């Protein structure tokens, strides 16, 4: 492969963000005497890096992070906009059903939803990115935080139902609240919040570190949440990504049918405690603990830590790309809740 072709391929790999992909090797073949040697083209240098994906770009990377509470009830599937999220936290709410905190920065979804109500630990996770926090309703604990803490920039669908938030006719409440990106921006402006921010990057491996990754083969991981609700990730060696499923059904975007595929799957243990008769929980997101990190078709046992409000792997980093973080209870824990093939 000639040098100018190598440069283009390298740039495409960087833009694609697949930290696990291998480099092409340049050809040593010289042009024949009657052939004109191709002109040398300068390699395009991408000057910026998206802070939450580690992907190189020449576009501005200072857009304000926004985080949306997304419903994961069976009646809310398939959801909208998750394929555009840089990072998603998946955590239990009440009962056996998880809820998503979808964190957006490098890409803008046309619409997100169904939007669901706030919980205090989701607010804590959102604040790790100084996010514009978007929710529809709240628990008593979340209401105390959002009503009395001016440090949390938020938008509540209870006050903008039918204006910024729209009810879809194809689903029933509480599984039918949606918000468009343009209305997120309207809400940001309406409330006088900044739309730009200097965002600290997540820890990412460089190209050499990503190539040197070791670990056990991990083509598929199954996570069981209590009574039968499960999540699986299946590795595709051609894309170098993990495709997500719920109870065996692929997770896709409702409008575009785009599959949810991620470069990092981070499974962490945290202590959960039921705090009321409704089944609401407190979750310890500060004490650190056991974790499994899946990247490039390999699984590694690591530890997690909370660094400035963010759940990250201790002593290592993510490969550039999208990340899904599954937080599971310490009881029964990773050893009983997670199966890797």
Short description:
This protein has 341 residues and is an alpha+beta fold. It is built from 6 helices and 24 strands.
Describe this protein's structure.
The protein is 15% helix and 32% strand. With 341 residues, it is an alpha+beta fold. The protein is globular and about 50 Å long. The protein folds into 2 domains: 105 residues, no CATH class; 134 residues, YerB-like (YerB-like fold). InterPro entries: DUF3048_C, DUF3048_N, YerB-like_sf. It holds the Pfam family DUF3048_C. This is DUF3048 domain-containing protein.
Keywords:
341 residues, alpha+beta, YerB-like fold, eleven-stranded mixed β-sheet, 24 strands, 15% helix, 32% strand, disordered N terminus
Low-confidence stretches: 1-17, 22-36
CATH class of the largest domain, please?
Alpha Beta
Output the CATH topology of the largest domain: YerB-like fold
Percent range of helical residues: 10-25%
In terms of structural class, how would the helical and strand content be classed? alpha+beta
Beta strand %: 25-35%
Mean pLDDT: 89
| Contiguous helical run count | 6
* First-to-last CA distance: 37 Å
Protein name: DUF3048 domain-containing protein
InterPro entries: DUF3048_C, DUF3048_N, YerB-like_sf
Pfam families: DUF3048 (PF11258), DUF3048_C (PF17479)
Domain DUF3048: 52-193, 223-325
């Amino acid at each position: 492969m000639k040098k100018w072709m190598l440069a283009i391929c390298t740039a495409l790999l960087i833009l694609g963000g697949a930290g696990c992909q291998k480099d092409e090797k340049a050809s040593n073949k010289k042009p024949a005497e009657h052939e004109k040697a191709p002109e040398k083209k300068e390699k395009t240098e991408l000057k910026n890096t998206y802070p939450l994906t580690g992907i190189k770009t020449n576009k501005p990377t200072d857009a304000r992070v926004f985080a949306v509470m997304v419903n994961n009830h069976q009646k809310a599937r398939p959801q909208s906009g998750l394929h555009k999220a840089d990072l998603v936290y998946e955590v239990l709410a009440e009962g056996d059903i998880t809820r998503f905190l979808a964190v957006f920065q490098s890409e803008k979804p046309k619409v997100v939803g169904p939007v669901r109500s706030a919980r205090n630990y989701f607010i804590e996770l959102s604040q790790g990115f100084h996010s514009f926090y978007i929710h529809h309703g709240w628990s008593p604990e979340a209401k105390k935080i959002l009503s009395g803490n001016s440090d949390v920039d938020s938008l509540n669908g209870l006050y903008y139902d039918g204006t910024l938030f729209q009810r879809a006719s194809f689903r029933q409440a509480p599984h039918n609240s949606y918000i468009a990106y343009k209305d997120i921006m309207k809400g940001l402006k309406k409330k006088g919040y900044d739309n730009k921010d200097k965002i600290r990057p997540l820890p990412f491996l460089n190209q050499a570190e990503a190539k040197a990754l070791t670990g056990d083969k991990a083509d598929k991981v199954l996570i069981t949440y209590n009574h039968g609700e499960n999540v699986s990730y299946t590795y595709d060696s051609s894309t170098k990504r993990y495709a997500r499923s719920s109870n065996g059904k692929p997770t896709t975007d409702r409008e575009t049918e785009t599959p949810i595929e991620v470069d990092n799957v981070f499974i962490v243990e945290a202590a959960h405690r039921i705090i009321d008769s409704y089944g609401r929980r407190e979750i310890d997101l500060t004490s650190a603990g056991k974790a499994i990190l899946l990247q490039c078709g390999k699984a590694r046992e690591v530890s997690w830590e909370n660094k400035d409000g963010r759940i990250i792997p201790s002593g290592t980093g993510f490969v550039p790309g999208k990340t899904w973080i599954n937080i599971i209870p310490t009881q029964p824990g990773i050893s009983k809740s997670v199966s890797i093939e």
